[in-house]
Amino acid sequence: MTPATPLSQTAHPQTAAPQPPSLLATLPGHHYTSPEIFAREQEKIFESLWFCAVRSADLARPGAFRTVQVGRENVLVTRNRAGELRAFLNVCRHRGARLCTEESGEVRRTLRCPYHAWSYDLDGALVAAPNLVKMPDVDRSAYGLRPVALREWLGYAWVCLADEPPSFEDSVVGAAVERLGEVAAIERYRTGELALGKRVSYDVKANWKLIVENFMECYHCATIHPELTYVLPEFARGYAAQYYVGHGAAFSEGAQGFTVDGSEGFGRLPGLAAEQDRRYYAVTVKPQVFVNLVPDHVIVHRMFPMSHDRTVVECDWLYTPEVLASGADISRSVELFHRVNVQDFAACERTQPAMDSRAYRTGGVLVPSEHHIGDFHSWVTERLGG
Length: 386
Ligand code: FES
Ligand code: FE
Prior knowledge:
Layout lengths: L6 H5 L12 E2 L9 H12 L4 E5 L8 E7 L2 E7 L5 E5 L14 E3 L3 E3 L6 E3 L4 E3 L18 E7 L2 E5 L7 H13 L14 E10 L3 H9 L4 H4 L1 H6 L17 E2 L28 E7 L3 E6 L2 E11 L2 E10 L1 H5 L5 H21 L13 E2 L4 H13 L3
Antiparallel strand pairs: 1-18, 2-11, 3-4, 3-6, 4-5, 5-10, 7-8, 8-9, 10-11, 12-17, 13-14, 14-15, 15-16, 16-17
The structure holds FE2/S2 (inorganic) cluster (FES) and fe (iii) ion.
């Protein structure tokens, strides 16, 4: 049987038609399905870089705690009696029981292990252990909880499991501010002073990289985001990259606010410049945070990669305390990005099973408007050691 002639030669047998630039390849499919690669990502990315763990205001009082999965470790974040946030590995130093088994809660003075009742104060020091008077050889000072580096920014506690954490200023703050440019400097939104209006947790059956890649391009926006493209018409043209809207995507003339139906939102956040009005900015803070900035609120996504094919995404909608105290109806405001999230995560879940297909064994391709996803793939590959 004669092999089929390539279509381009059949259509233009004599002419040397200009060829489009060759398309970049994506990562091969097994990068999204391999538990071994995921384990390396946990070690080289999530356990090595700063990881946005908890909204600081969620731990309002001393003794409040929250546990989060960071790479292969479970991390306990709490507030000590002096009002400062502290982070520890959530592992009892006696025989290794998980100290706090709840996702969140509050203790009065000490964190008490449910196994043999060793107790730690809110700075991690071992302060009580039953019968230790009869076992004087146990040095309490040597068995405090293992501390984890913690910094606060944008109203969130960021933790780092590395023995020598990278510079927070360079790798987190500097990277985000640089990408957003001078006009949209993220600090002007004063995200740390905003209050939580709504939080939705999405359990997405997809590899974390599919979620990042989806957030990084808007080629899909015209297809799956009718509400978003109504408010931000340039997204329908597919050129904007949601991860890096440094120039600010302008609202459509018909949209009064960043709401599901384009209806009016709330007053401009204090501190914003006039040119930041009626515009949407966004940035990805690698490896797991997306920040969306609009004139009257801020939306922050934190990803928690749980396995090679499952990622929990916690999304916070933040408003001024005054807007929330006024009892204003934020539902149309929240509904816009909630729909975007549902639409995006459905797309990611539709993609995940195909990563195992022989059709994707060598990966897919990136069209020109997705070229920066190639940079993300290079970054991941380099982190994993090539
Ligand atoms: Fe925690 Fe024994 S394992 S007290
Ligand atoms: Fe999207």
